[in-house]
C-alpha cells in the first residue's frame, strides 16, 4: 500500500519486483520501505526512503522533496515510533524510530534502530 501519490506506489512495486533495486531518480541509491501507522488514523502506510547504515541502525532522510517542512511519514512515526522495514535481503525488520538532529544547521537525519 503506497502512501501519497502513485509515484510512491510505482517505486514500491519496482523495489519489490527487482530485489530492492529501482531506476530513475533513485538508481544506485540504498533504499528501504518504511511501514508505519498514520498519526491520526492508525492506517498502515508504506514509504520508499533512502538510507545509510549507521552502526546497527539506519539513518533515513526525509526531505519532503526539498520542501521547508517535515514529510508526512515523519509526523506519523513521531506519533507511532514502532515501525517495520523492508530491506533486501530481509523481508521485514521490526524497528523503533528515534529522531536525531544533524551536525550542521538545517540538516536533520532520522534513525531507525532494528530490533531482533
Write a short abstract of this structure.
With 116 residues, this protein is α+β, with helices and mostly antiparallel strands. The protein has helices at residues 6-17, 72-79; strands at residues 31-37, 44-54, 57-60, 82-87, 90-101, 108-115.
Could you explain the architecture of this structure?
The protein has one domain: Pnp Oxidase, Chain A (Roll), CATH 2.30.110. The longest helix is centred in the first third of the chain and has 12 residues. The protein is an alpha+beta fold and 116 residues long. A hairpin with a 2-residue loop joins β2 and β3. It is globular and about 30 Å long. A 6-stranded antiparallel barrel has the order 1-2-3-6-5-4. 17% of the residues lie in helices and 41% in strands.
Strand order within the widest beta sheet: 1-2-3-6-5-4
Query: Main beta sheet: strand number and arrangement?
Result: 6 strands, antiparallel, barrel
Q: Count up the domains.
A: 1
> What is the level 1 CATH name?
Mainly Beta
SSE-based structural type: alpha+beta
Uncertain segments: 103-109
Radius of gyration: 13 Å
Beta-strand share of residues: 35-45%
The assigned CATH architecture is Roll
CATH topology: Pnp Oxidase, Chain A
Number of alpha- plus pi-helical segments: 2
Mean pLDDT: 78
The arrangement of helices and strands along the chain is HEEEHEEE
- The CATH superfamily label reads Electron Transport, Fmn-binding Protein, Chain A
Shape designation: globular
Give short descriptive properties of this protein.
116 residues; alpha+beta; six-stranded antiparallel β-barrel
Amino acid at each position: 500500500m503506497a502512501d501519497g501519490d502513485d509515484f510512491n506506489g510505482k517505486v514500491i512495486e519496482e523495489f519489490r519486483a527487482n530485489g530492492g533495486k529501482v531506476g530513475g531518480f533513485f538508481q544506485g541509491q540504498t533504499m528501504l520501505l518504511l511501514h508505519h501507522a498514520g498519526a491520526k488514523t492508525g492506517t498502515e502506510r508504506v514509504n520508499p526512503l533512502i538510507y545509510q547504515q549507521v552502526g546497527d541502525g539506519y539513518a533515513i532522510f526525509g526531505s519532503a522533496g526539498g520542501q521547508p517542512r517535515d514529510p508526512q511519514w515523519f509526523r506519523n512515526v513521531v506519533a507511532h515510533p514502532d515501525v517495520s522495514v523492508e530491506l533486501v535481503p530481509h523481508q521485514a525488520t521490526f524497528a523503533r524510530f528515534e529522531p536525531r538532529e544533524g551536525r550542521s544547521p538545517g540538516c536533520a537525519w532520522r534513525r531507525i534502530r532494528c530490533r531482533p
